[in-house]
Amino acid sequence: MLQNRGLPREFTIVIPALNEEQVIGDLLRRIDAALAGRSFDIIVVDDGSDDGTAAQVLAGPSHWRVIQHDVRAGQSAAIHTGVVAARSELIVTLDADGQNPPEEIPKLLAAWSENKGKVELGLVAGQRIKRQDRRAKLWASRAANFIRGAALKDGTRDTGCGLKVFPREVFLSLPYFDHMHRFLPALVVRSGLVVVHVDVAHAARQGGVSKYTNLQRALVGVVDLVGVMWLIRRKKTTHARELQKAPAKLSNVQ
Fold first, then answer.
1. Total domain count for the chain?
2. What is any Pfam family matched here (predicted)?
3. CA-based nearest residue to 129, from 94, 92, 154, 157
């Protein structure tokens, strides 16, 4: 079982990766440059790659960590593995393909710091603007986000953005299931916590290939959406307090 041993950091960056040998090294160097002077770990969770993704991470500095799944388990499982292994209580996520510019991470961390004392904050979620994807993927994503938003009413227009900041404790308290990463805003709202949205840039893929097709996303999305709707409807909110016993009376027996 993985354990989060070691000295605490300000935050841990968790990156799920599958066959991203061409881009992962450059992405991690850009993260280091964007966050120079801050204390953090990077955990790349290699989800059963058959290329040199893990080797690229192992060749880097000591705060670049890699955890490897023996079989492919999916993006949500990879994020969960990284969060469990994290050495800090604050988690940052982004995708490994380079389409989430790491230069946007300070913007999300600033939003976290600005809002955490004002509301019961559970998640800062990036929302992509000026997306650099193929037209078919954009249409499919917009349709899926519209349907999901209408059904779940979580106030999020783009759940597919990998850039997110959240407490480790909050994530591990959420119901875990495959593809849960696409429903984090709704699950956080279900827990009674606040989601803050931040507009972020988006970049074209510089190497490798997408791991999903529009059809695959649609097929699993319908089943998952129904499941999350059920979870929200079955949620019961209650407030509990421990009752205190009255102080014991002293005896006057002589």
1. 1
2. Glycos_transf_2
3. 157
Residues 241-250 have pLDDT tens digits of 888 888 877 6
pLDDT band at 254 (very low <50, low <70, confident <90, very high): low
Phi then psi for residue 56, to 5 deg, are -60, -40
Residue 111 structural domain: 11-234
pLDDT score recorded for residue 235: 76
> Rounded CA gap, 82 and 239, in Å?
31
Would strands 121-128 and 194-200 be described as parallel, antiparallel, or unpaired?
parallel
Task: Kindly state whether residue 99 falls inside one of the protein's structural domains.
Answer: yes
Q: Is the pLDDT of residue 150 over 50?
A: yes
Strand extents, DSSP E, the chain: 11-17, 40-46, 64-68, 90-93, 121-128, 164-167, 194-200
The SS3 assignment for 125 reads strand
Cα dihedral 139, 145, 151, 153, rounded to 10, equals: -140
- Residue range 85-96: average pLDDT? 96
**What is the domain-level CATH number for residue 184?**
3.90.550.10
| pLDDT greater than 70 at residue 141 | no
Return d(Cα 81, Cα 17) in angstroms, integer: 12
